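Structure (tokenized):
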């Protein structure tokens, strides 16, 4: 079964062709980052217009690269929520027009579920599974008893992890989106600044990152006022350690409580090297627990993950 996936929820226009929810035949991603960088964040109106400019071209490229004709497509899957409404509408209209013109079924896909299913490209899922979702807009622990069954165990009460990374990085003077640059700095520094570890309720699965973010911003502002230098590498490293420690502790706690067979990590921050190392080490100490991360190119927004999620949604509905 060949699924054509479409993603346009934020600042990436992407179309992919995926066979049987697994084999990525093409995954064309047009990133608007260079356009938004000068504004220090995504400008919704600009994003919608960029999607309009690129969407047809991205469709054509994806089909060409996969060597697939529209006739050979069995299903269209498109992100419908969450995201910027103007951006989403461009992808939805393009996907629906394609489906209508070629008489194909079209399923709607939740972007976060897409991020979770990016892991399926790497490995089949062993249930019950636990998804740690860490993106620019979401931070959640989600229990999956089976395909397409989701129970949110906890989520952030304020900033998402990626959002905290981007804000901390911006104040450090790093380029947008700053998460990856904070991660790189962190790898060359030492955790020498004292920062809070925010667990809220130690037994619970909710998160909070705005206090930690403010603590970092305070250190930077105070140093500026006093004319003192900041060791950016060490500050990035301290911030990363606080984030990773809480994420790993809560994920492992949930994995044990719900006796899961697999942990899947989803969203842009799944690319974070500190998180990859921290979780790999913690999971290594537990018997019969599998850990998967998507390949780096499937961590951030892409249509391949939407095609995979759409495949499962469609197949489960129709069997
Ligand atoms: O999942 P994603 O592409 O978009 C949303 O659905 O939100 O995630 C983007 C987020 C941004 O905040 C970006 O800074 C962050 O993921 N990110 C990282 C890293 N790579 C991307 N954060 C920390 N370390 C990284 N290596
Ligand atoms: Zn995303």
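Design, position by position:
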């Amino acid at each position: 079964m060949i699924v054509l996936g479409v993603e346009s929820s934020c600042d990436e226009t992407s179309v992919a062709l995926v066979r049987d929810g697994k084999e990525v035949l093409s995954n064309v991603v047009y990133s608007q980052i260079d356009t938004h960088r000068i504004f220090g964040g995504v400008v919704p109106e600009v994003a919608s217009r960029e999607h309009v400019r690129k969407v047809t071209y991205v469709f054509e490229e994806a089909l060409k690269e996969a060597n697939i004709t529209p006739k050979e497509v069995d299903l269209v899957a498109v992100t419908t929520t969450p995201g910027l409404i103007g951006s989403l509408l461009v992808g939805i209209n393009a996907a629906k027009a394609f489906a209508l013109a070629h008489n194909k079924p079209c399923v709607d896909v939740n972007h976060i579920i897409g991020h979770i299913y990016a892991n399926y490209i790497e490995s089949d899922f062993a249930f019950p599974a636990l998804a740690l979702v860490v993106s620019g807009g979401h931070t959640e622990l989600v229990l999956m008893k089976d395909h397409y069954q989701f129970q949110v165990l906890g989520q952030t009460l304020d900033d998402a992890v990626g959002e905290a990374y981007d804000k901390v990085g911006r104040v450090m003077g790093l380029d947008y989106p700053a998460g990856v640059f904070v991660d790189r700095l962190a790898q060359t520094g030492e955790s020498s600044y004292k920062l809070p570890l925010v667990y809220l309720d130690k037994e619970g699965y909710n998160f909070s990152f705005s206090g930690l973010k403010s603590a970092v911003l305070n250190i930077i502002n105070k140093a500026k006022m006093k004319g003192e230098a900041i060791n950016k590498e060490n500050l990035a490293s301290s911030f990363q350690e606080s984030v990773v420690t809480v994420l790993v502790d809560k994920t492992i706690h949930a994995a044990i409580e719900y006796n899961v067979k697999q942990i899947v990590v989803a969203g842009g921050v799944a690319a974070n090297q500190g998180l990859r190392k921290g979780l790999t080490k913690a999971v290594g100490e537990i018997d019969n627990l599998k850990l998967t991360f998507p390949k780096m190119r499937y961590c951030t927004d892409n249509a391949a993950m939407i095609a995979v999620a759409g495949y499962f949604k469609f197949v489960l509905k129709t069997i």
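Reviewer-requested clarification: The chain has two domains: 2-117+299-318, 124-293. Residues 232-257 form the longest helix (26 residues).
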